[in-house]
Fold each of these.
Amino acid sequence: MTTIRPCSPADISKLNLCNLDPLTENYARTFYFDYLAKWPSMFIVAENQKGQVVAYVMGKVEEDPDYIKLMGDKYLPWHGHVTALTVAPQYRQMGLAKQLTAQLDRACEQENAWFMDLFVRVSNKTAINMYKKMGVFRRVVGYYSDNPTGKGTSEDAFDMRKSLSRDKKKTYIRENGENYRINPGDIYHA
């Protein structure tokens, strides 16, 4: 039995089972604590019977800075962002990622966000298949500076988005987004 619950400060020291995955981005402890302090409803863990954190999602709500809004309609409005979602290898294929994503989705709805997005390595087929209902908004060329596949020095990312109830017209979704390529420096402008 696994319990889904809000992250606590004590959980930050229990993330190792999840963070030992090569596809999981690791951050300094202060980064995790900052997220917990700023967006407590969007940092959610799955805990097993032994009290180990076996999966977690870290998210936030944000929008582009005011100076970008002055550039016209090419800005990102208030939206939810999945910063990290990971499941320990021995706990995969149990639906934990979907449960955590659903919890984050509800938190974004409570914040009245337009959509929820995340960036996924193009080589991470498992994650892409899980998120395919979200839809690919665009392909960010060279988004990741490392490339665990060994093919080149960087790896592209898919910017995947799911409209939330506020976006009734699906304004922030694009068809065939995997073919729409941008550079990392243009994330806020394209």
Amino acid sequence: MAQEKKISVAVIGAGGVGRCFLQQCSQILPQYPNISLVFISRSNRSLRVPTWNHELSLETWEKDLVASGDPALSPKELLDWFGTTENEIILVDNTSSQDIAGFYPNFLKDKITVVTPNKKAFSSDLDLWKRIVDNAYPNNPDGGFLYHEASVGAGLPIISTLKDLLETGDEVQKIEGVFSGTMSFLFNNFAPLEGEGGKWSDEVSKAKDAGYTEPDPRDDLNGVDVARKLVILARMVGLQIECTSAFPVQSLIPTELESCTSGDEFMEKLPAFDDEMEKVKAKAEEKGKVVRFVGSIDVGRKAVEVGLKEFDKGHAIAGLKGSDNIISFYTKRYGSNPLIVQGAGAGGEVTAMGVSADMIKAIKDCHGWKKVR
């Protein structure tokens, strides 16, 4: 019987999602005796094994990283270090770094498997997207595997569902949904199915206090985060979308507040613009509808859009609760009754779950299942 391959796991990004991921690893990795954690890094320091026969402790990694005097490695330095072992390497990038994302093609070309929730790798420059895909298996038979389920919808099976539809020969005609937990929370409370809802600025403030928005809510209200997710899915279905500015993205930031120097200043001035959002809500209510912030991809028309849209109260998107995401896949097989994926689409634990699930798939692929697929 052939000896099982040794697999080394390297983790970039150990705060937020990264910390949740490493906590989940403490339950997962002990199930695989040939898997070892060999590297952890944050922006300013790193922790790695002295030799490839060692492994880092999943119980003490956090204090060990704090005590480490080693600086963070550049992507090139990390790649060079990977070249000193014959072990299979799984690189888990939990950051949103453009620099690291830009180095994915090099990692993949050197047979290093990449697991990541980093949206920038797949939604920025179209040329980078192509180089990543071209250097990953199966386009490059000798390349590393690539998994990025959590780049859209955190732990929700959106990427894998779309891949399954495409790989089994279905024709995807349209994708539509609420792709932002922040926007879901805001509009489910601002324009609920029952009742009047609160003032727009009050709901933004509540969302900020609850941790649903970024420290500066404009980073959510500008629609760019949703646009990045749409770019990823659009490229997967074959649309050559150059970037997030290549299609209409509606910003909910009043023009007069774009120049605010801080999130606090923005929040202080936002109530003066509540009437504008009230008019949007009232216009929908006059038709017996509610307004929601959605993203859509019309494959036939090659059209991608992000912004406000009115929905009948019986529509699945109108009936969302809390901060749930919902994504509808309209395909030839499913007809007018779309395949729907719904659930929590944000949060460290669920995003880390998506990353962890991808890592498990990568472990199985690194065991030599590549040739069977």
Amino acid sequence: MSTINPPKALLFDVFGTLVDWRTTVSYTLSTQAAVALNSSSSASLPPAVRLFASTVSWPDFAQEWRDTYKIFTISHSSSHTSKSKHALKSVDQHHYDSLVRLLADHNLTGLWSPDQLHSIARIWHFLDPWSDTSPALHDLSKSFVLCTLSNGNVSMLRDLAAHADLPFSRILSSEHFGAYKPSPLVYNGAAEHLGLRAEQCALVAAHLGDLKAAKECGYQTIY
């Protein structure tokens, strides 16, 4: 980031940059599995499901779940380089669909009911922040316009901001621009939405690919 010509707006990646998805998701999967295995209806679970649910590494499962998200967004970013008339599949829907597929891959189909699956898939709306995230953003909000710029859908980002006390003045999502990062449509669209030139925006992210794509669009970058 330039100190001579500092940006007017800081646009933040969210997952991994501001919130600790790994701890929250791993804990939720593990605790919900324990609830299912110890519930009054657990006797109806197939023995294989009980066995695999007792031995699976839920942190590894959480990483696999996250990896499907990366593949999903990259595949959509490369196919959306110009404005599309077709609505994107939401990250919420992807999280649900990929959770169902992963459970099948691990012989865990039936561990949770459809309603429970929907509830678990929404844990991405309520990820806990890193300990210094909220205080730092409150300080930065005194000098900059703070915005999200995430592949998460709008409802997810609003829930995360409320849950983690993230003082954003704007919630911007790839959903607004018909593509997923690292498509240029997202970075260019966000600057236009804010009424700023690209060089007046800085992307703050913990992901080098995100920063590289933003820089190629003229953004300042902060790692």
Amino acid sequence: MAATQGFKPLPQSNVPPAPSHQASSAQRAPQHLRTPSNRKTIYDRNLNRTRTAELSRASFAYLFSEMVSYAQKRVTGIQDLERRLNEQGYPLGLRLLPLILYREPTRTSVRPNRILHLLQFVHGPLWRHLFGRTADAIEHSSSANNEYMISDNEPLVNQYISVPKEMNQLNCAAYVAGVIEGVCDGCGLKAAVSAHNGGTEMWPGKTVFLIRFEEEVVEREGLLEGKK
């Protein structure tokens, strides 16, 4: 009500009716748009219809390589490129959170509000939705109380990207880090997420996603632990 102070509603009788030719042109405007033969759009689909559907890897590889090429334009270095990939993935994480929660069973479809529950959500439902499997490990940093790590031994986003030798520090999984960051912020647990190369002899392409929560999130977690 406060936002409407100073404004007077117009009497309906003083508003002139729209000319008939404008109404008819507005009705004819959408006719040039192509619609499916069954007259249904994407908004008519059941949200659960594609729960187990899989995307062609060839299509994904082509699309993601184009995204990397687009992000690579006018960058100043590897960190700038990874930052752009992170920014591309962030809005996807914000939108995936309510969709995945909607598709989860009723007893588990609760928005995570604790750090451990959020990490388990990322490790399980989010990873299964994106890659058809869970992540490989969750770890808590021994040196910093606000840092956690999620490991993926074979990130799908890196399997079809050829990185030049002079850019061997580049990790295109920064896009997935942006998705994770969007999910964290969507849950109200703000964090900065980055992707790091953690290759071993057994898993040369291993990537570690470092999740660094803000201090107020850790303080809130400590208060909730103290109430138990």
